[in-house]
Give the backbone structure.
Amino acid sequence: MPQVTLPYNPISRFYRERFQAKVYKISVAVAETCPNREGLRGMQTCNFCDQWGSAAYERNLQKTLRAQIEEVRETLRTKRGAEKFLVYFQAYTTTFSHRQSLQDLFTTALSYSDVVGFVIGTRPDCISQSFLETCHEFSQRTFVAVELGVQSFNDEVLLWMRRGHNRERSLQAVARMAKACPQVNLGVHLIFGAPGETDDDAIASARTINGLAAVQNVKLHHLHVLKNTPLAEDFARGEFVPLEREAYFQRCRLFLQHLRANIAVHRLAAFSPRADELLAPLWTGFKMQTYQDMLDHMRDRQAFQGQYV
Ligand code: SF4
């Protein structure tokens, strides 16, 4: 099959080179809460977060880790020809757990011979010393990746999102991870589309990431409105208007054009796994079409990742 040239550096390429196999992530939900939901230090739920912690399915929270892994693994094998797997502790904030339970979870994930490592999604302010030590310990014997929910490098946007951490906290988290567990594959998540955010902000974010040598990948989302979230209330009152598709494509393209070419990209847009919860923008519901149109947007302009670095 001829190689299709993509205008960006997809994470699948990294997985293929690293593991010499078709690797898929198995998303699991094991954490039941996060500091924002617990109201620690006066925090509130992030304005875009639904009741399932942005990713978990209710039914998964009721299953054991083994049951979740085995169910998804079988589906990925059958439907997508997956050969190896990374277990992705995604929903809520997994690192908001005790050290022993983290170790038990990671050990369970690695007990499957075709699981080649694990990925942990967490917040920049949930990087405890024991989490760093646990990551370091496991990274000596397997592939460990951490994805930090940075979301924005703009403090006003972070405040509006009610993230409960600021830009400085994110930069500190990256520095601490780099120092304490340099073998961990580190990534950051960004959300584009907050009110007042501009294309220049996206370019500035790319430049900030370029300056963080430890960051090896990014995941991009556009801000979308799910039912039963604080953002849904803003949306209903007309106080939040989601980015139009073309405006998002442009912001995303500019970000990529200014991003180091060697940074792998997980995805180019968010999608809602629960279609019935999506309020806006509705184009978010068409995952493959959105992806294809984003690629066309870049190709039509002869744009590619790293073009202006
Ligand atoms: S987005 Fe993450 S940190 Fe924010 S409320 Fe949801 S689970 Fe908690």
